[in-house]
Amino acid sequence: MRKGHLTLVTAISLLAIVIVTCTASNQITNTAALAQTIAADAATTTFDMNGAISSLVLGMPPNTKTVDMTTVQKFILSGDWSMDVNQGKLTNFKGNFYTGPVNGGTSNHTHQLSNFRISSSNNSSIQLTPDKSVSISGIVDVGTNGKKAWNDVNATVVISKGRTIAISLADEDTQSHFMGQQIYGIVKKINI
Questions:
Q1: Other CB atoms closer than 10 Å to residue 148's CB: what's the count?
Q2: Average of per-residue pLDDT values in the chain
Q3: What phi and psi values does residue 178 have, to the nearest 5 degrees?
């Protein structure tokens, strides 16, 4: 065999090895990417998250049809919240926030949300969806200035796309204290 022919055969053999290696490597990479996609599409049952409450409650009944924003009393809600879910079970949800009129009135106070329990009729596992959304319904105790004010308040907590939180407290269970309006906030951190 001539030297030039031997070099060409060696080059072709090396090229074949590179092609086979690259193809195998791409198959491994594609398989790993597919596994990550499947994992990303699955709901998560163990996670914790927290964030800030930053909301405004208007001092009017929920059935009011027309609102004059210049005269309606407004209350600022500001604080924090956290939630822990372990293997589909809620292990902790709490919220602490300050409430006060925007005009600096004398009715400033704090609220505490604690002892959140999932409804006994709801046996399904809590799952954080792939887009990081979750809705939890149950009952919660609501405190005012560190003391229990309302026990067993029907409540729903909705996390939307890992960005916002909406807390609904049953109006009739809190003596219309929150005027039938949701308490809003943001998600700061999610650990999965």
A1: 12
A2: 83
A3: -100, 15
Q: What is the pLDDT of residue 173?
A: 97
91 plus 177 within the same structural domain: yes
Q: Which residue, among 95, 154, 161, has the nearest Cα to 128 in the 3D structure? A: 161
pLDDT-derived band of residue 105, with 50, 70 and 90 as boundaries? confident
The residues facing 51 across adjacent strands are 81, 187
- What is the pLDDT, as a whole number, of residue 41? 61
Same domain, 79 and 96: yes
Q: 99 and 170 share a domain? A: yes
Residue 19 and residue 111 in one domain? no
On whether the CB atoms of residues 136 and 117 are closer than 8 A, the answer is no
Handedness of CA 57, 61, 63, 67 (dihedral sign): negative
Q: Which residues pair with 86 in a beta bridge?
A: 89
